[in-house]
Write a structure and sequence with these properties.
Layout (H helix, E strand, L loop, with lengths): L22 H5 L34 H19 L14
């Protein structure tokens, strides 16, 4: 899935986590995925958990997360969405 992305070698597969996310309910109805974008930067010190009042975001990673998300959506559309052509028979909306 990540072929052609120059930074794909930096992607690590994680062990499953016991979390409480609503994505599982959505994914029962429509295709879905869940991924985390790492933000570790040793020069910025220890990262705090997401629900901590001391949580900060390493904004340098946002373009990578955006590119990954866009590549997943594009690939899905190219592989699974068939174009819908208007039929010459039946009603038309002019």
């Amino acid at each position: 899935m990540l072929q052609g992305i120059c930074w794909a070698r930096n992607i690590l597969e994680m062990q499953p986590l016991m979390g409480a996310e609503d994505i599982s309910f959505f994914a029962e109805m429509v295709p879905g995925y869940f991924y985390m974008v790492g933000m570790q930067n040793e020069t910025q010190g220890q990262l705090e958990p997401g629900h901590s009042p001391y949580f900060t975001i390493n904004e340098d990673v946002l373009p990578y997360g955006n590119a990954f998300h866009a590549s997943l959506a594009t690939r899905y559309l190219l592989e699974y969405q068939q174009p819908k052509f208007a039929s010459s028979k039946g009603s038309s909306r002019d």
